[in-house]
């Protein structure tokens, strides 16, 4: 059996070499379909790893509380736009009244108005300016809840927060943009018309594509200092770190507490949103899953076209090799031998197309990593196996009819065929 399969495979490759152009055009649909599948799979896997790495830095037990859901979603409803903001007092209530919450933090910023542009506040040092920053006031627990570890210096203290001291912790990219090779510690930067002394620089966040461009261009100042200079701002974003293994319980406690504090009737839905890194990652996977299904459908059309081409070329091959089939039958070849030969040729043809498609898909992934470093891409082994298997299955399916037709030829008539 192995000898017969080996001989059939050798004959199949001989046929490919003799008709290179025809064979390539025949499997072009298979090549395109497999290439698209591998390229998209590599991008999706890379993006999933990227967003997971970015979100995991904030802690798997961390819950995010805001006026509305800030995940992957469409436009806000009228009810969501009119919700009242969360407050500093809500944060303290969560800390004091939710036993399964280990720690909590809060950020204050300008009011977020849907559909309206954000206020652009640059950071300045001497003649250097950096735009697109994230300027926020918070409390010292920000460091532990969000794993905001200082790369240089330290985070500000509770005493500095209580005394409204003008100190700041800045992001890695902002430090490079403002100070270049100069040591930022102890220097004063201007943000929003006020000056803050830099006491720390945060480590660079993981993730490339889904990292907000301001994630490493933050200016974090004490909550009291922010309110001192920006008394009109009242948008609060709460982060709560649940005790290990108690995230579900902590979420229920926060929901119950905020519903009471915001006077939400029992028959009404929440007028706030609570989420986590797992929930955001799940929403992302739903979106990418829908995209993947669409790509599979499109790729399947390419495979179908390639399969029809394979059937056509195999039927042509049966006609061209009628005398050969007659000779093989005359010297003792059985019907299953003829079927095996032609099926092997069809599978070899589409399998070769699949390998070419995988190579091109991997090449696209490599080029993406080189030309667009912010768009991660990694070719998973399962996509390679699935792609080659799918391409060979196309050859098997569409090669059955030509193979059976070849096996049913009458050897006497086949020998007479010119």
Short recap of the structure:
With 418 residues, the chain is an alpha+beta fold. Helix content is 55%, strand content 15%. It is built from 15 helices and twelve strands.
Oligomer: single chain
Radius of gyration: 32 Å
Supply the helix-strand structural class: alpha+beta
Helix content range: 40-55%
Spans of 5+ residues with little confidence (pLDDT < 50)?
Answer: none
Query: What is the makeup of the main sheet?
Result: 12 strands, mixed
- Per DSSP, the total helix count is 15
Q: Outline, from the CA principal axes?
A: elongated
Give an account of the 3D structure.
It is a single chain. By secondary structure, the chain is α+β, with helices and mostly antiparallel strands. The protein has two domains: 187 residues, no CATH class; 215 residues, no CATH class. Helix content is 55%, strand content 15%. The chain is built from 15 helices and twelve strands. Strands 1, 2, 3, 4, 5, 6, 7, 8, 9, 10, 11 and 12 form a twelve-stranded mixed sheet that branches. Strand 3 and strand 4 form a beta hairpin. Helix 3 crosses helix 13 and helix 5 crosses helix 10. The longest helix is centred in the C-terminal third of the chain and has 44 residues. The two termini are 32 Å apart. The model has no long low-confidence stretch (mean pLDDT 82).
């Amino acid at each position: 059996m192995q000898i017969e399969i080996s001989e059939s495979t050798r004959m199949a490759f001989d046929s490919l070499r003799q008709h290179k152009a025809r064979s390539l055009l025949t499997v072009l649909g298979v090549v395109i379909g497999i290439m698209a599948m591998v390229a998209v799979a590599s991008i999706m896997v890379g993006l999933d790893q990227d967003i997971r790495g970015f979100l995991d830095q904030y802690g798997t037990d961390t819950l995010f509380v805001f006026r509305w859901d800030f995940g992957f979603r469409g436009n806000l409803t009228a009810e969501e736009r009119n919700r009242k903001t969360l407050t500093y007092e809500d944060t303290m209530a969560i800390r004091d009244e939710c036993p399964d919450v280990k720690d909590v933090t809060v950020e204050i910023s300008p009011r977020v108005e849907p559909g309206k542009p954000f206020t652009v506040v640059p950071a300045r040092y001497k003649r250097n300016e950096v735009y697109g920053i994230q300027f926020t006031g918070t409390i010292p627990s920000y460091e532990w809840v969000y794993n905001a570890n200082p790369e240089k210096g330290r985070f500000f203290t509770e005493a500095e927060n209580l005394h409204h001291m003008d100190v700041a912790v800045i992001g890695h990219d902002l430090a490079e943009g403002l100070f270049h090779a100069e040591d930022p510690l102890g220097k004063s930067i201007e943000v929003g018309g006020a000056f803050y002394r830099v006491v720390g620089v945060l480590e660079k966040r993981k993730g490339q594509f889904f990292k907000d461009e301001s994630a490493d261009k933050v200016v974090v100042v004490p909550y009291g200092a922010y309110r001192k200079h920006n008394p009109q701002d009242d948008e609060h974003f709460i982060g709560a770190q649940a005790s290990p293994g108690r995230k579900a319980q902590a979420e229920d406690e926060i929901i119950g507490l905020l519903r009471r504090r915001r006077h939400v009737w029992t028959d009404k839905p929440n007028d706030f949103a609570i989420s986590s890194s797992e929930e955001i990652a799940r929403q992302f996977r739903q979106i990418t899953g829908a995209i993947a299904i669409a790509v599979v459908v499109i790729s399947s059309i390419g495979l179908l076209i390639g399969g029809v081409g394979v059937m056509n070329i195999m039927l042509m091959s049966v006609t061209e090799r009628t005398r050969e089939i007659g000779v093989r039958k005359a010297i003792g070849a059985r019907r299953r031998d003829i079927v095996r030969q032609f099926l092997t040729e069809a599978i070899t043809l589409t399998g070769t197309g699949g390998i070419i498609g995988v190579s091109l898909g991997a090449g696209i992934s490599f080029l993406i990593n080189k030309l667009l470093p912010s768009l991660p891409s990694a070719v998973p082994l399962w996509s390679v196996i699935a792609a080659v298997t799918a391409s060979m299955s196309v050859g098997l399916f569409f090669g059955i009819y030509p193979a059976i037709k070849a096996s049913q030829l009458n050897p006497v008539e086949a020998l007479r065929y010119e």
